[in-house]
Design a protein that fits this description.
Blueprint: E1 7-10, E2 14-20, E3 23-28, E4 41-47, E5 56-59, E6 75-81, H1 82-87, E7 101-102, H2 105-115, H3 121-144, H4 159-175, H5 182-189, H6 193-204, H7 208-226, H8 231-237, H9 243-254, H10 258-267
Antiparallel strand pairs: 1-2, 2-3, 3-6, 4-5, 4-6, 5-7
Helix pairs in contact: 2-3, 4-5, 4-6
């Protein structure tokens, strides 16, 4: 990004600082009319939360939300050129990320320092420039590392419960070949069975059984095409106790039997 001194200004409802030609930070509420924006911008929206509202960061929002009735707390936005985001290690968010992520303490501290800077004049501008760069770099790092915890679509899951559900998903992804049960997964991630099953569906859009089946059947499909093991052995190795249950599950997922899947793959 550029090295020139930051340009700062105000609109009716936003205070902004042009960090570089590829990034602008804005504080306030309302639309960004009059704010110098980079080309092809991606918006990172930091919401500090309030009564009944989870603090959140949203990446890829296409518009800035307007004011909330009775809520005059400022929001923070970073407008970053898509090409610059890529160079920093971020992925293209594509469509608007409506759910967003919980705002972790590390990012919240940086964002609050940027928003509430007590300095004046050029010192204020330079401080906010530095904090803007720190915030975008730390946000992209946590995003790329999978350290940002998604908000549930309805926002009802707490940060702690969402983190536990993320642990449940990692357990499934890494230990799908074991004899996992709902009770075992619930104990391992520190949730009761009801909260695990309800929260998992809310957060990931599928049941635990469906997530396990996707892992097991994906591994089985690859084995059918890359080994000459018997179909029954492949099913057993991937968690199915008999060939009939494996064939039914495989046919529901891929539309053909395991044997036909192998035959079509070899023919191709």
């Amino acid at each position: 990004m550029g090295q020139k001194l930051p340009l700062a200004g105000r609109t009716e409802r936003l205070e902004w600082i042009e960090v570089s030609p590829e990034m602008t930070a804005a504080i306030g509420r309302g639309l960004a009319a009059g704010v110098p924006l980079p080309p092809d911008p991606i918006i990172l929206h930091y919401d500090f939360g309030g009564a009944g509202v989870q603090p959140a960061v949203r990446i890829g929002a296409s518009t800035i939300p307007g004011s909330t009735e009775g809520d005059d707390a400022d929001l923070l936005f970073l407008f970053v050129a898509r090409s610059a985001l890529h160079r920093l290690g971020g992925e293209d968010p594509g469509a608007e990320d409506a759910a967003g992520y919980h705002l972790p303490t590390e990012l919240r501290s940086i964002a609050l320092a940027l928003r509430d800077c007590p300095m004046e004049g050029e010192a204020r501008n330079v401080y906010r420039l530095a904090k803007s760069l720190e915030l975008i770099c730390e946000t992209v790092r946590m995003w790329a590392e999978g350290a940002l915890v998604p908000l549930a679509p309805d926002g009802d899951l707490s940060f702690a419960d969402t983190g536990k559900l993320m642990n449940a998903r990692r357990l499934i992804d890494e230990r799908w070949h074991e004899k996992l049960t709902l009770d075992g997964i619930a104990r391992a991630c520190g949730l009761n069975r009801a909260k695990l099953t309800r929260g998992f569906r809310e957060l990931f859009g599928c049941t635990i059984a469906e997530a396990l089946a996707e892992q097991r059947l994906g591994k089985a499909s690859r084995a059918l095409l890359t080994t000459d093991k018997p179909v029954s052995s492949i099913g057993y190795e991937n968690g199915y106790l008999n060939n009939a249950s494996f064939a039914r599950a495989f046919s529901r997922r891929f539309g053909v039997s395991p044997s036909d899947y192998r035959a079509y793959g070899v023919a191709a």
